[in-house]
Amino acid sequence: MSDLSRIDIKFLSGVGPKRAEMLAKQLDIHSFRDLLYYFPFRYIDRSSIYKIANLQGDMPYIQLKGRFLGFTAHGEGARRRLHALFNDGSGTIEVVWFNRVKYIQENYHTGVEYILFGKPTMFNGRYNLTHPEIDVYKPETEIKGLQGVYYITETLRNRSFTSRNIRQLVENLLSSVKLIDETLPDEIIRANHLMPLDAALRNIHRPESVQALNKAQERLKFDELFFLQLNILRYTKQRNSSLQGFTFNVVGEPFMNFYNNHMPFPLTGAQKRVIKEIRNSMRTGRQMNRLLQGDVGSGKTLVAFLTILIAVGNGYQGCIMAPTEILATQHFATINAMAEKIGVTVALLTGSTRKKERERIHASLQDGSLNILIGTHAVIEDNVLFRNLGLVVIDEQHRFGVAQRAKLWKKNAVPPHVLVMTATPIPRTLAMTIYGDLDVSVIDEFPPGRKPVQTLLRYDNHRNSVNRFIGQQLQQGRQVYIVYPLIHESEKLDLRNLEEGYQQVCETFPDRKVCFVHGEMKPSEKDYQMQLFVTHQADIMVATTVIEVGVNVPNASVMVIENSERFGLSQLHQLRGRVGRGADQAYCILMSNPKISADTRKRLELMTETSDGFVIAEADMKFRGPGDMEGTQQSGIAFDLKIANLARDGQMVQLARDVATAVIDDDPDLSKPKNRLLADGLNSLFSRTINWSLIS
Ligand code: ADP
Ligand code: MG
Fold it and tell me: What per-residue confidence (pLDDT) applies to 616?
């Protein structure tokens, strides 16, 4: 059979140029293959016919067989609708249409026996049926078994092009194609008990049975995930074998000096383990690409610092890249204070660094007198040249685009080791798919003495008691964050929301000093306001999510999040991590509009029940879908999975990963004859997409 992706859909019987244009525009269906992979989003059981008299409770989609008793049109213009009574001998049901009135009146008639298909809904104590599918009843063509329902756009529906039309086109296609080409070698199909592709594609559209449908779904999910993994692993292998890295032979003097004489506290077991993992991969001679996951407050900064000291001890420079100026500044303060003790030099470079200072930094980077550079995006500007950059630490990785990271690599002939730190725990299935090639280290232990932040969900009508509570904490000398959501930092409306909030806070706590930070401020003003809070000249900080990352004020004990229903779970978790950094009990108060959906309430309640970042990340992915997860948009890889779901199909991801690993281990460039199908499959699937895994 020829390549179905090369056959224009307009050549399918029942399509033609006009419909082809419509299918392309509305459903992104251009070729035979596109239609074949346009799967039903659900199935309906057409094996039985209901009696109207037997309808009860919440009904699923069902079919009825009977006759229309008459049609009546009501209303005018846009409000025009059509009512009909439909009788099947056992009873009568009302059928309603809100559009296509004329079409229905012209095409359907009383006295003809029809099969109606739809979901009866209760209205005023009686069932009715809105916009059912209608077929003339013919005993010989009675439809049996499961039938697919296809997603259709509103525009198509208005042009009387429905799920049924798609079904018809799929029928035409399936009967015109004798055998759909297999994409997997026999060996893999047999070893994993997969359904052959031809059968899977036929069954996904018109299942022979529920079992067959399950097998078909399984096979198609496997295909999707397997090729994705194969693609990632293929490039990983190539990169691992081609990319040289610096060999850091020794731990070095700065590390030992600091470790023996200046440690502010003993490392946790997890910090020690992670440092060992990093140390080991930096001496292999291959470039390290490591993701360091650690919940907020788990002590990643110290790990980063010690890691950089290893680079310095081997004669290289290190660089820390942070997503915001505030965070970069704070890292600089923390790290500079530690580095000073052992004579290691550190500089801060951000967008607001003065020209003179900038020039000094550039010079000291190039002559090698500067050991560590900390900064924002400014550090990847083209004119920032290092003498010998050995290690780059990227904090809060999800804020950086892949392209930006790639830019860092170009700073040397040999790429520096890369340590990406994130407090967003990325569910395993997702990590495997986005960062297929990154090694992962996890800090799964908090420094001793931390009490989990107590999290409370409060509605706007509890504001008085919340304010009383805040007052008590302030009375005890503690500090408080109050955070407002910003959807887009530039939206004027959001800013007004924040400013009003600020006014209210000032009025509620008239004898307290309140500072105010948002993303649109000039960096110098922002710094000034932050500094007020850090030095405890201010008791309350009213802010947007600019404080989400990085601010470290151990004396702050309360985090109030306004309109928490507008935040994602992972974001709430990040914000919550801003408190509870000292040894005392800290609180996070999620304020919410009382009018929220049951789902939203469940989400917020989950926050009050767990402080486990991984549980929260998994839940976030389930609620929002992986496409919305931070990190996925920028990863650029094929996330338009048609049938597999990274949140729900974890086991299948693992299986696909294992099978792909075995294939690549055996035949890294897929040149063996038995893998020809796989090589072809990859080429046709991924030839047009950029290979992000090469630079992630
Ligand atoms: P994050 O992982 O969120 O970046 P930080 O590195 O900011 O966390 O560390 C959070 C706090 O814990 C800081 O105040 C830091 O000084 C402290 N800390 C880090 N490691 C330890 C440790 N081993 N023992 C005690 N406190 C620690
Ligand atoms: Mg941090």
Answer: 84
Token readout for 158 is 């208005």
- Other CB atoms within 10 Å distance of the CB of residue 277: 17
Strands 81-87, 62-74: pairing kind: antiparallel
Q: Residue by residue, what is the 3-state secondary structure of 200-220?
A: HHHHHHCCCCHHHHHHHHHHH
Residues 6 or more apart whose CB falls under 8 angstroms from that of 603 comprise 569, 619, 623
Quickly state the pLDDT bin for 470 (edges 50, 70, 90).
very high
Atom of ligand 1 nearest to the CA of 296: 3
**DSSP bridge pairs for 480:** 540, 558
What is d(CA 420, CA 89) in angstroms, rounded to the nearest whole number? 70
**Which DSSP state fits 507?**
H
- For the CA of 449, the nearest ligand: 1
DSSP 8-class letter at 410: T
Ligand 1 atom closest to residue 300's alpha carbon, by position in its atom list: 2
DSSP annotation of 671:
-
Closest CA to ligand 1's atom 27:
447
Q: Which atom of ligand 1 is nearest to the CA of 271?
A: 23
State the distance from the centre of ligand 2 to the C-alpha of 296, rounded, in angstroms: 7
Collapsed DSSP state (helix, strand, coil) of residue 53? helix
Place of tokens 């299986």: 655
DSSP bridge pairs for 576 = none
Position 389 pLDDT exceeds 50:
yes
300 Cα–ligand 1 center, Å = 7
pLDDT band at 505 (very low <50, low <70, confident <90, very high): very high
Name the residue among 366, 367, 364, 421 with its Cα closest to residue 392: 421
